[in-house]
Records
---
Amino acid sequence: MSSNAYKPPETLHSPVMMQPSMYQGFMATVKRDSLIAIRHRGEMANPLMFFLMVITMVPLGISPEAAVLASLAPGMIWVVALLATLLSLDSLFRGDFEDGALEQLLVSPQPLYFQVLAKVLVHWLTTGLPLTLMAPVLGVMLSLPEAGYWPLMASLFLGTACLSLVGSIGAALTVALRKGGLLLSLIIMPLYVPILIFGASAVSSAIDGFPIVGQLAMLGAFLAAAVVLAPLAAAGALRISVNG
Amino acid sequence: MSQTATAEPAIPRVGKPLLELRNLHCERDERLLFSGLNLSLYSGSIVQVEGPNGSGKTSLLRLLTTTSVDYQGEILWRGVPLAQSRLDYLNHLLFVGHLPGIKKALSPRENLAWFSGLNSGHQRCSVESALSEVGLFGFEDVPCFHLSAGQLRRVALARLFLTPAQVWVLDEPFTAIDKQGVANLERLMGEHAAGGGCVVLTTHQELAMPQVQKLNLMDFRELCNAHEVEDSHEFEGNLYE
């Protein structure tokens, strides 16, 4: 350490200090979390492997008959996607809590709302989006009727984003508990029920030839509400968890 | 705020205090940590918080960093209660905690880029020169899990070079740092104070700087009544801080 490069803090009161850029803070967290997700690829693949394995087992365990599987497929894929998301939620804030990064986030001049939103966005990009993209392949395995593919992807696209957002509340509430996994599921499950109902019913209605605009509109409304409210609740919960 | 004289070892008292603690009372798990704590931090102050393990040093720093609000009394930032001036205060605060928030999967450069992004890119020097200042030249792109404990601590302390923040709150900054590093860090804190900043730190190490103000938390425990003191002594063997 040499002293020549050190500049005394002359700029302590420069007016630029007064305006922290939310966009920059948001992007910094998105970038950092994406990098961490890429470095820990194995962890990222866990929920996807779970999704794949359960769906592979269904024909073996129940019946390989196409007619039986086709009637099960929409609900089955949705339930497993939901559980896979739930599996991955516990680690949403845990790493940051354990190494002090969460404290740094609270102490930073950034609004916690956007920081939570950034973390949830990365969570969705690394779980919800891959699940959505994988779903048609699993649909083939469960002989999902042709009319069900696009509705399945559309409903999962909207639905998994809701799952990540709503789940962040539970993850934030239980982050300080050493064994929060079960409690997290209990808190979050009831909130997931409406998303599951509308998501699965969108796919089965499409297969039966009914319009699904209503279900997708409901999922869209859930998503809009979740984007606005869930990070607020999660940010509050994080403050309580760190305070405790 | 005007600059303080650098040569004088006396505690500088220039202008209004930056941060003021008034009659602070803090309990944790029904155990009194301190009571009647008054402290004014001026630009140029360096305060070393002392006390045995479990005396509430970290709790005090948590109050100062607004991550905990379990207290009675007042904390004022430039004369305004923290509740109203929180964002402005956080804008001027640098906190390096006991757990410094360094991600082991990322390189030092990526770690510091995140901190600088949270501060909207306001920094005094480049990430590279901050890292070379703390003796990590050539380690910029090595994943942090390859670094030693001391080197990890240095990554966290590189933020001191980066940040234009005025108030530094440092929890055990000397942990795992070698002798030369400690000397450099002390000099850096001295320069920061001379430049108009203020520093609050906890450490069990004796600091060589003459202008350090010492704050022993045990002094603020004896103010409370004898019954509570007895209670608090029961827990003294506890490592919980």
Note: The radius of gyration of chain A is 21 Å.
---
Amino acid sequence: MKVLVPVKRVLDYNVKPRVKADGTGVDLANVKMSMNPFDEIAVEEAIRLKDKGVTEIVVVSIGEQKSQETLRTALAMGADRAILVVSETKVEPLGVAKILAKIVEEEKPDLVILGKQAIDDDNNQTGQMLAGLLGWGQGTFASKVEIADGSVNVTREVDGGAETDTLKLPAIITTDLRLNEPRYASLPNIMKAKSKPMVNKTPADLGVDVTPRLTTLKVVEPGKRSAGIKVADVDELVMKLAAMGISK
Amino acid sequence: MKTLVWVEHDGSTVKDATLSAVTAASKLGEVHLLVVGQGVDAVATAAAKIAGVGKVHVADDAAYAHALAENVAPLVVELMATHDAFVAPSTTHGKNIAPRVAALLDVMQISDILSVESEDTFTRPIYAGNAIATVQSSDAKKVITVRGTAFDKAATEGGTGEIETVASTGDKGLSTFAGSEIAANTRPELTSAKIIVSGGRALGSGEQFHALIDPLADKLGAGVGASRAAVDAGYAPNDYQVGQTGKIVAPEVYVAVGISGAIQHLAGMKDSKVIIAINKDEDAPIFQVADIGLVGDLFKIVPELTEKL
């Protein structure tokens, strides 16, 4: 059984994003970039499924040349080989989904596991779009994945609790935070990852038009909240609350 | 522009998230609703009364009982032949279904909009709300999800929508519903609660979380939320999570108890009208956004506060 895991290089989640003064976007020059945290969970899940019938994990990233670092990280975690689709311009989720659909056509995986959203654009679209384009089932926001015979049971984090759906394979899964805790790559595995295969492609090679449909007109900082007051004790807090009309 | 708004419901009542989506859609043009499910007559009747709605399309079929995206998306795509925009609230159903619809229509979705600037231009949060982007869509049809806290709720009465039955597009046989664990919650729903009491990792255990947070919430008639750290540690169920990837809330009053205030958490609650923070670390980032802060031991403060309120 083969699993495809798309990964995205994003601003590290510990770095506070800074909006560029000219309003064109967020400043990504000289800041730490990492694998999207939800994608790390996706890679980890694929590795854990190796005890349960998964024989090969292919990771793919779409983005600038530097995304190969992200792919190397995935390889060091335990993926087997990598595909980099190089695009120096930003590719929207719809374009990414179309590229992935072409790669699925070539690679014929049984399962594609993606992060539910990238923490830069916060779109939460790619997995669902890919499922739509392929006509596959989709198990989004997964907190538990169990492979069965010809199907997969996905427990999903939904409003109000959890829901389990059974999907016919091949299928799409998108990961939520509590699916697993991703491993750190060990030094020997980081060394080993350097010799794992990685091929480069372009959207044009795959015959996909990635012309953006959305134009970003401007990016601004949100309205700032300023710190208020500190109260000394509970009595003072109760008084303040009462003044706002909250007593009971 | 003719819009088709996804009606979020629980099988008998229309959820508040729908009402914010209706307001957003009304800024684009004519508002039509889509009620999908099994045995949803009551929902359709209630939906038709929402102020300002035109047609209410109702698709009632066993294939739609659990709103599986694989079955629902083809139905929406069919209806989009006669509508210009599909508008869904940013609920788990909305987020699950809308992008599948967008891909089938070959449209780039605009997620989680905060405002409608014009028929094709919207604002939306990126980087956990640390930046707000204004985006313009060149697609002929629009697929949009709506952040509930950013739009007023449409009135639930006064509308005279016309109910129209839509034929089922059937079960696509890709997925089946196998079960759910929906926690019975008698407290106000987070996304519509006027007051929220949220607990963090400092509560130390699930028992202490409930022993301290629940009575305070009950006293205030508040909904209960949690930080990611508290949910990850198992102190509270996943649907309590407030933050970038959890629920986005904007109550009148948000009480953060033992929450340090990671940017991912702030992203989910910083639009609250009044923020109250209780934390033993006076340098905790939560105090930078709090209107009222109290530094101290939450295990002493919270019971005392519950008692004195």
Note: Chain B touches chain A through 87 residues (CB under 8 Å).
